[in-house]
Design brief:
The protein has 66 residues and is an all-alpha fold. It is 97% helix and 0% strand. The N and C termini lie far apart (96 Å).
Length: 66
């Protein structure tokens, strides 16, 4: 009976430890996903800015030649 009590306490401790590790892993995963999304959003804005500048440049060159 005493062994069952210790096994129950050990099982509860393992479950609490697993929940704490799961919480840490999920928060780390959320941080990684957020940083990736933030980076891709910045890349998208930068790419759009560069493409618009290139289009303006091409229009300016074509106007001067024609």
């Amino acid at each position: 009976m005493l062994i069952n009590f210790f096994l129950a306490i050990l099982l509860i401790a393992i479950a609490i430890g697993a929940m704490m590790m799961l919480d840490t892993a999920t928060s780390l995963g959320i941080k990684i996903v957020k940083s990736i999304l933030r980076f891709t959003r910045r890349s998208k804005i930068l790419t759009e800015y560069i493409l618009r500048a290139y289009i303006r440049y091409r229009k300016t060159i074509n106007k001067q030649i024609a």
